[in-house]
Amino acid sequence: MVIAKKSLGQHWLNDPVALEAIAEMAEIHRTDTVLEIGPGLGNLTRYLVEQAAHVVAVEFDETLAATLPQKIGSKKLTVIQADILKFDLNSLPASYKVVANIPYYLTSNLLRTLSESNNPPHLMVLLVQKEVAQRICAGPGQMSVLSASVQLYYNCELGVEVPAEKFEPKPKVDSQAVILRYHAKPLFHDLDTKKFFRVVKAGFAGRRKKLRGSLAAGLRISKTEADTLLKTAGLDGSLRAQNLSLEDWHKIYQAL
């Protein structure tokens, strides 16, 4: 019997209905390469190898990585023991897909790594903490740095909800799938993403502050300069960061 490691955030999904639903949301074709992150016991892997041309499963746990090939028994499966944050995504063919039940603690770093890669996935279906799934897909009024950083690259859709009792061991919260489809065309041309996110992070630095105050502190400018910046962008300085859309942030970026 394999015991889940709390340090790796291991919670294995055992429900066949949920597993099949996650695989279906990925819209896998017979010619697709699928990257599965943290396959664990291979419960989801079984569904993926049935549908894809090739499944690359990256597993950090050495014991699980060593036993998975024999457990699945498919020539379409390649198991790599590695840290996904250090894995070479350029080794995968263009338009690959990602399907994964990922540890909660890994979500933000993983999304940034995948989204900003030179070879980003064409489509992702990720099972994450329900609250985080809803934050990722949030619109103006509830936006965050996380939703802005994902939605700059991907269209977001909420998928199936999975109650905590469907996992072993049982986590403290429910999960939900997010479906992320890469934008066919960039939202903004000639964008310096480093500078863009400097503006976004500055705006969210003071969560309870109005936008003029947050930008002034985050960009180290005066409130008068922040007001001028926002006026140039056509925005009200009394708004709060969560009220802005990506288009609004781009206006501030251009004005700066």
Could you characterize the architecture of this molecule?
- The chain has two domains: 177 residues, Vaccinia Virus protein VP39 (Rossmann fold), CATH 3.40.50.150; 63 residues, rRNA adenine dimethylase, C-terminal domain (Helicase, Ruva Protein, domain 3).
- The model has no long low-confidence stretch (mean pLDDT 92).
- The relative contact order is 0.12.
- α7 packs across α8, α8 packs across α9 and α9 crosses α10.
- Helix content is 36%, strand content 19%.
- The protein has ten helices and nine strands.
- The longest helix is centred in the last third of the chain and has 12 residues.
- With 256 residues, it is α/β, with parallel strands linked by helices.
- The chain is elongated and about 65 Å long.
- The strands form two sheets. It has a seven-stranded mixed sheet.
- It starts with 11 loop residues before the first strand and ends with a helix.
